[in-house]
Structures are given as C-alpha cells and as structure tokens.
Amino acid sequence: MIDILRRRFGLLGRNISYSFSKGYFTEKFSDEVFAGNSYENFDISEINYFTELVKNNPDLRGLNVTIPYKEQVIPFLDKLSKKAALIGAVNTIKFTKNGKLKGYNTDYYGFKKSLEPLLEPHHKKALILGTGGASKGVAFALDELGIPYTFVSREAKENIIDYNLINATTFDNFKIIINCTPVGTSPNIEACPDLPYEFFTEKHIAYDLIYNPAETQFLKNAKERGAVIKNGYDMLIFQAEKAWKIWNK
C-alpha cells in the first residue's frame, strides 16, 4: 500500500453523533483497497474553533461539513470552487498539497442526481422548505434542471413566502415539495413542516433531505395522498462519492 493513501478525513458539524458520513466512510475504508485511511467526527460548539482544529490536525486531507457550518465555514477557507461560490454554501473541504483549504459543494450534485429519475413533464415548479445552507445547494440543482422554485420560511421576506400562504392553489402550481429543514429528524420523528398535506396528490413529489428516519412524518403524510416520496439517503451517497473524488484529484 502506497503512503499517499494513509490519510485522515472527517466531518465538521455540531451534535453529529448520528452522522451518516462517519459510518459510510468507515465502512468504505474497511476495504483493504482503502487501508490506511480513517474518518472521524469533529464536533465543535462554534465555528471559531475551526482554526484550532485545523492547526491541531496537520495530517487531515479532507472534511465534509454539515449543519450548522455550511455557510459559516466559508470565511475560514482560502478559496472556493466556482460552484460553491455561486451557491454560497460548502459541504466539502479539500486540504491542498500547498496547505490551502478549498471549499466545494457536492450537495447540489447529490440532490440533482437523486431527483432526476423521478421527474415527469408535469413537475414544472418546486417549493423549497427552509433557507439554510442545504437549501442553497438544492436551489442550484433546480436551476441547472431548469425548474423554477420558491423558498418557504417561517417569516416572509423578499422572494420568500411563509407557511401561512400555502394553500390548494400553491399545490396546484408547485408539484415538487422539498424539505430542507431539520424538522422531523430523529429523535423528533413525529414533527413535520406545517403544510396542508391534504392537497398532496399522485402528481406531486415529496422530497425530504432527512434520512433518519427513512420515512419522516412529512413523507408519510404525502405518501398517504399518493405522492411520490424520496428521502435524502441517495443524495448523501452521491455527494459523499463526489467528495471522495475531489479529495483524490
């Protein structure tokens, strides 16, 4: 085994003991082809600890980034990929050979690749629930797919509607509903975004970025009305493999 493969990777976030990434990469690295690679969680209470983390771990070669640091980490990086700069959120960091930190976004790629097989001609517009870092990658993917979208948040702002405005007409116009909020994540599995679920139909796609539980209350409610449902597991697989390619290029 050549030394270049003996490297450390990890996940940056807060309260991430549940994380998909650690389990996924630990299993990946159990294959003798990847012997010498390791993956661990870096759970920090605030982003200002990031500088110390990097300083104390000089053998790190790459990081994934999750909630709540996808946007907050950007000022600590030396450069961004073109797409990460356009999106305004980073979920992958590469430690370059000259010691620089470069941010990428693979969320948009994972979401796009997992949504595309579900699309039908009547899926013309999307509602994005939430306005955090994850929603930015989703919006970028929808732009690439040529699907107009509207953001939904608890408070209406410019180009953002609040949940109180969602009604039957909204569901007639928007056949893709994407939950980019953490509402419904384990252990709070009975929670769900505040929507009039009775207006879901078999013409709708309900997509939840959450993967634990596999079927959130949001997805269950939409499924009961005949909607096509999709959780975030495949998106995570696609974005993780894209990150692995970035770390190795």
UniProtKB/TrEMBL annotation:
Q: Which Pfam families match?
A: Shikimate_dh_N
Cite the Gene3D superfamilies for this sequence: Leucine Dehydrogenase, chain A, domain 1, NAD(P)-binding Rossmann-like Domain
| A Gene Ontology cellular-component term | cytosol
Annotated Gene Ontology MF terms? NADP binding; shikimate 3-dehydrogenase (NADP+) activity
> Which GO BP terms sit in this record?
aromatic amino acid family biosynthetic process; chorismate biosynthetic process; shikimate metabolic process
Sorted UniProt keywords:
Amino-acid biosynthesis, Aromatic amino acid biosynthesis, Oxidoreductase
> Keyword Protein biosynthesis on this protein?
no
Q: Would the keyword Oxidoreductase be found if you checked this record's keyword annotation? A: yes
Its pathway, per UniProt, is: Metabolic intermediate biosynthesis; chorismate biosynthesis; chorismate from D-erythrose 4-phosphate and phosphoenolpyruvate: step 4/7
Know the name of this protein? Answer: Shikimate dehydrogenase
Upper lineage: Bacteria, Pseudomonadati, Bacteroidota, Flavobacteriia, Flavobacteriales
